């Protein structure tokens, strides 16, 4: 019986030990990660030769989750991405992915993490870099 108890204890502890460096992200860390990804993805699409023809007129995007103007900036950018009229632009996988990811980030910031985020600055010009 003692061997069975030790085996059961070992079977319970092994998954716990193996998963220890993979803590689930907090809402704040998830928003930071997604904001960095969206900023990098938008910059990549402006440089990419396949999508640059439709993204060239889009403003530069910098998502700073500590800036109180970020929600307005994201809402505007989402509208611009979703409003692309050129068929080749609106239906490319990369542009759709950017729009969907930005919408997810906007929803997470406005609804799910609303209490976890603290806007430390109010500088709308800083988001226009």
TrEMBL record:
Q: Where is the signal peptide?
A: 1-19
What Pfam families does the entry give?
Answer: CYTL1
Q: Name one GO biological process term.
A: positive regulation of transcription by RNA polymerase II
Cell membrane as a keyword? no
Protein name in UniProt: Zmp:0000001268
**Which InterPro entries does this one have?**
CYTL1
Which PANTHER family does this one have? Answer: CYTOKINE-LIKE PROTEIN 1 (PTHR15974)
Q: Which organism is it from?
A: Dicentrarchus labrax (European seabass)
Which of UniProt's keywords are assigned here?
Answer: Signal
């Amino acid at each position: 019986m003692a061997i069975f108890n030790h085996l059961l204890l070992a079977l319970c502890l092994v998954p716990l030990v193996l998963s220890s460096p993979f803590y689930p992200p907090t809402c704040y860390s998830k928003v930071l990660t997604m904001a960095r990804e969206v900023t990098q993805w938008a910059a990549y699409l402006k440089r990419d030769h396949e999508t640059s023809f439709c993204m060239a007129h889009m403003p530069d995007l910098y998502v700073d989750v500590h800036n109180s103007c970020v929600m307005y900036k994201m809402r505007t950018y989402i509208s611009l991405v979703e409003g692309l009229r050129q068929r080749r632009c609106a239906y490319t996988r990369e542009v759709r992915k950017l729009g969907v990811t930005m919408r997810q980030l906007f929803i997470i910031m406005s609804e799910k993490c609303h209490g976890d985020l603290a806007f430390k600055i109010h500088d709308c010009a800083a988001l226009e870099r």
